[in-house]
UniProtKB/TrEMBL annotation:
CDD domains: SIS_PGI_1 (cd05015), SIS_PGI_2 (cd05016). The lineage of its organism: Bacteria, Pseudomonadati, Pseudomonadota, Gammaproteobacteria, Alteromonadales. NCBIfam families: PRK00179.1. It is an enzyme of class 5 (isomerase). Its EC number is 5.3.1.9. One of its GO terms (biological process) is glucose 6-phosphate metabolic process. It catalyses: alpha-D-glucose 6-phosphate = beta-D-fructose 6-phosphate. Pathway: Carbohydrate degradation; glycolysis; D-glyceraldehyde 3-phosphate and glycerone phosphate from D-glucose: step 2/4; Carbohydrate biosynthesis; gluconeogenesis. This is Glucose-6-phosphate isomerase. GO terms for cellular component: cytosol. One of its GO terms (molecular function) is monosaccharide binding. The active site is at residues 353, 384, 512. It is found in: Cytoplasm.
Length: 547
């Protein structure tokens, strides 16, 4: 047994889980009118009702003890202080410095990184204002109205999903198109829809080595040149965001057209850096700053609020409770707000790339489950498809429901229906429907007893299915910033408890490496195939089809 699973806090939680599995949330609600109030906390424009979870005060206290024993708060202090906590890559983890409005320095290797961060923010602000004012023009003198943002993973999901979520705050004069996949269909479709004279390409790649991003940018460049632009005009239409300035200039980017980021910003935590430039182009710099401000306020809350009131801590501990003591293998995110529909995909990368690990601190293999599968989509759509499994299937899927209480420019009827479905689903998951209740419902239908019993059996819903409900006054830039930072810290807390390095991603790196080796064999059709028999066979078939 590892130190974690043999710790008194863990053992205590195991005992509590065994006891609690014989109880039902429905009975707790019936017995305690204060339950909802007692298990609700709010901060930074987010109200979290976690009363519909399989928890008691005793469980929450035991989970908090686990966090204390795992030194979550000490680990978080080390992160904010710029210590090298990403050990396998020997890096500090400081996305929080990118939204640090405290006025205090943040030291990496004894040097304050804030002057560089602030200079980059100024550069973003100036750039956005020059595009929005029409002062920055393309090579034929037309203002830049079409932005093609090319990137993948963290260099894509954050900007795309935040821009989508903040559509009501969009700046009218520009349209941003996001391209990630190397599948040529996407970039070709986007290029076909814009005029090259008014197009700005923002290439975002922290490493500047990502195959998909490099290729999509080369395709855009070839399109630009074929449409009439010259090599000289490229500087007016192509900019880059990267920590690899050398590779970006070698690629042909003008040095003053490169926005920097630093190796202490992880890809999936990079939306707060210049990787967020397309967000600022979409919603304007002031709104973009509000997004950062919201994240900063969540950072302050995370560092200062006591565990029992701390939103990221509560979410993380509930997650650990279900993953490690109830065998939950996934967690579903259900935003009831169309513009927030991308959030599950964002948190999916954030969480799964961070905590999809099996080696804990001292190079030992874990003997407990770590990061769950994160999935989800916008409500109410899921109610008419996959919710069935959450209600009556055999696996436990804890859920986060989300709803803005107000939405700009929307018909009240639609919004009330949306809200009613959101609340109704959490209620159904919690209380379920007993066999007796189903039988009573069917009693007036004139069925014979055997049919009635059989139907009631199928209709019975066990309930006791856990969910959190996150309410926002509205999804404005500040609240969205706080929401994303809340999930970042949730992931951090879980990684700290599980003892994994939440900031490397060697699994996906291997995929990149092998993909490039295979690509060589696809281009070089005469080259000997020396992979496994299946891969060789697949390559041969592709070669034959493309002869
Ligand atoms: O493929 C994994 C990954 O490294 C992510 O972590 C990252 O967000 C993405 O690729 C893009 O990387 P880059 O910004 O270096 O192109």
């Amino acid at each position: 047994m590892t130190a974690l699973t043999s710790s008194p806090a863990w053992q205590n939680l195991e005992n509590l889980a065994t006891k609690i599995k014989t109880q039902h949330m429905r009975d707790w609600f019936a017995a305690d009118p204060q339950r909802a109030e007692n298990f609700t906390q709010a901060a930074c424009g987010i109200e979290l009702d976690f009363s519909k979870n399989i928890i008691t005060d005793e469980v929450m206290q035991a989970l908090q003890t686990l966090a204390t024993e795992c030194q979550v708060s000490e680990k978080s202090q080390a992160m904010f202080a710029g210590e090298i906590i990403n050990h396998s890559e020997k890096r500090a983890v400081l996305h929080t410095a990118l939204r640090n409005f405290s006025g205090k320095p943040v030291l990496v290797d004894g040097e304050d990184v804030m002057p560089e961060v602030l200079a980059c923010q100024q550069k973003i602000q100036d750039f956005v204002s020059s595009v929005h004012s029409g002062q920055r023009k393309g090579y034929t003198g037309k203002p830049l109205k079409q932005i093609i943002a090319i990137g993948i993973g963290g260099s894509f999901l954050g900007p795309k999903i935040m821009s989508e979520a903040l559509k009501p705050y969009g700046f009218e004069g520009v349209k941003v198109h996001y391209v990630a996949n190397v599948d040529g269909c996407h970039i070709q479709d986007v290029l076909a829809s814009v005029d090259h004279q008014e197009t700005l390409v923002v290439m975002s790649s922290k490493s500047f080595t990502t195959q998909e991003t490099l290729q999509n940018t080369l395709t855009a460049k070839a399109w630009f040149l074929a449409a009439g632009g010259t090599q000289h005009d490229i500087a007016k239409h192509f900019i880059a965001v990267s920590s690899n300035i050398k590779a970006a200039t070698e690629f042909g980017m003008a040095e003053n057209n490169i926005f920097p980021l630093w190796d202490w910003v992880g890809g999936r935590y990079s939306l707060w850096s210049a990787i967020g430039l397309p967000i600022a182009l979409t919603i304007g710099y002031d709104n973009y700053r509000e997004l950062l401000q919201g994240a900063f306020e969540m950072d302050e809350h995370f560092q200062n609020a006591p565990i029992e009131q701390n939103l990221p801590m509560i979410l993380a501990l509930l997650g650990v409770w279900y993953v490690n003591f109830f065998g939950a293998q996934s967690h579903v995110l259900l935003p009831y707000y169309h513009y927030l529909r991308g959030l599950p995909a964002y948190v999916q990368q954030l969480d799964m790339e961070s905590n999809g690990k099996r080696i804990a601190g001292s190079n030992t293999q874990v003997d407990y489950a770590t990061g769950p599968i994160i999935w989800g989509s916008e409500g109410t759509n899921g109610q008419h498809s996959f919710h069935q499994l959450i209600h009556q299937g055999t696996v436990l899927v804890p859920a986060d429901f989300m709803l803005p209480l107000k939405v700009p420019n929307q018909d009240d009827k639609h919004h009330a229906m949306l809200a009613s479905n959101c609340f109704g689903q959490t209620q159904a998951l919690m209380q379920g429907k007993t066999f007796e209740e189903c039988k009573a419902d069917l009693a007036s239908k004139g069925l014979d007893n055997a049919t009635l019993e059989s139907l009631a059996t199928h209709k019975t819903m066990p309930g006791n299915k856990p969910s959190n409900t996150l309410l926002f006054n509205q999804v404005d830039p500040k609240t969205l910033g706080a929401l994303v930072a809340m999930y970042e810290h949730k992931v951090f807390v879980q990684g700290s408890i599980w003892g994994v390095n939440s900031f490397d991603q060697w699994g996906v790196e291997l995929g990149k490496e092998l993909g490039n080796q295979v690509l060589d064999k696809l281009f070089n059709t005469e080259a000997n195939l020396n992979f496994d028999a299946s891969t060789n066979q697949l390559i041969s078939k592709f070669r034959r089809a493309n002869e």
